[in-house]
Amino acid sequence: MKICMDLEGSVEQMEQLNLVAGGELTISSGAVTVTHSLHSIDTEGDAVTDDLNTINGGSAGDVLLIGRANAARAVVLKHNAGNIKTPSGTDHELTANGFVMLKHDGSNWHVQSGNGSGYALNKLACLTVATSNITLNDTQTMNGVFCGADSRVFLAGQTDPTENGPWIVKEENPYYPNSGDWIRPDDFQDGFSVSGHLFYIESGTSYSDSVWMITNHYGEDIVGTDDLNAVNLGGGGGSAFDLSTLPEDSSRASTDYFTKHDGGRMEKIGMNDLLRDGLHTMTDGATITLNLANPERIFSVTLGGNRTLAVTNATVGDRFILKLVQDGTGSRTVTWWSTINWTGGSAPTLTTTAEKADYFEFVCWGANTFDCIRMEQNLDTSTGGSTSLSSNIVSNWELDYLIDDEFTDSVASLNLVPSASPASSMLAAGGVSGAGGAATFDGTQYLRVPVNAASPLNFEDSSFTIALWVKPDAIGTSKKYLSLGTLSIQDDGANRVSFYMPGTSKTFSGADMTTGAWQLIVCAYDSVNNLMKISRNGAAYETAAQSTGAAALSDGYLYVGSSTTPDAYYDGELDSLTIWSKALSQAEVTELYNSGSGKFYPFAS
């Protein structure tokens, strides 16, 4: 169910309201600090009137109700004098018995009304609330409060739900029959549509300083005709609304939502996300621990050596999947935790083939006792399998020649423009293949092409590979081979090549880079296994865990031979730059290197 606030001049859909009473605040030097979502405000030194310029506290998305603490003392919300904004751009005085709703945008509190008057609840404030059936006649005591003639009260538990909502109490005069019959307020007459109306409860043994709402599920609530469902939004005593009052619906749809609390606020989660087990990529190490307190129940790890497996926080009935991937070396083994009941009575031998995977599904049946109920072995992963260098190519720059002073992109027409003039000064003969040409850099130059969020190079959290051949004239100087948004491939300053992604970097630990020789660099991101990978000259990938992918591109440039500043200029030659929208497998990297001879676009067999 989505709740809509029917504000004068606008209708705003509020995904969650969880109002909690925080008591009275006193203005100090034009400011108050809120700690809850419902407060009354008093003037500084009991002044007859006082300005409120700033509301401290709160975060983006928070909803706040504030009102006067004393009907005789006026509080004025000052537009733009601090962090309070009204839609009309004018100041707003809180009414004597009313409340105003505000919403936080991350910086400022905005009064929620189309005309700037706020959503004043003076006409919707009630003396008290009754949650059990009340006879609608004469003065009486409800919820510990005497309700005299002309008191405005709120009913939430009538046997006839059409009677819920606000009423005006009348006193019975024995000389005038029916003179004590209660009446509806002027703002809540028969025929009025009242779904989403809020009511502030002033006092009572229970629910003092609480806010209630008239809600429905399938359309309007019409006074005098429809059942009126009164929901306590929070604050005061008592509990939230009774789930048993909601209609039952056994169907499931991706558009269904559930509420959850993230430790700071209420949020919604979709049906698909709620039911999805979630993938948790673990960091390789001597001991790999599966923490079953983690809500993600598909665990994956690439084994970089012989490892010991452990399980923590297991509860009877826990069910989870474990994926063990062999690295580029293969033949890795594991020591399992105790106790596991295996089909056949003993643990299976893991697949030994590099970059193949084994899957196991477990159920916890007792204290640290697990059954393996399913296993699949020797499966391909996104990093293994057959080779297909010609598929998923996003861009390719052969860098053999210039057309109209640009190095052309054979795939996406993202032509690289030299920074030098003339452009021909950045074209060298020969290249990695010994024929054609290559781009050359003198330590002050770069190539670049504009990119943005719509660019095919905007990978975000999807897989990709960048491969390029380089022949440095100098190494050990922290120079950039390529920069794209938050990604970069560079000399690490210690004669090795490094791959940088948001929050993570990986330096190839194999053979050093050398000057005067062509070398193939391959950097990839595998979004299936949340791994960034790097290889030099066809060697086995070295990996690092990286779960966020690449940051989204904004307006900028892909730079070749420098950083995005630009600076950290490369000195040397660069050839055959290709980008794929997939993570190349180890077999594809081996094929691309081709024993040092290289394989080039269009990568025909």
TrEMBL record:
SUPFAM superfamilies: Concanavalin A-like lectins/glucanases (SSF49899)
Keywords noted in UniProt: Disulfide bond, Signal
Domain LamG-like jellyroll fold: 462-587
Signal is among the record's keywords: yes
Source taxon at top rank: Bacteria
Protein name: LamG-like jellyroll fold domain-containing protein
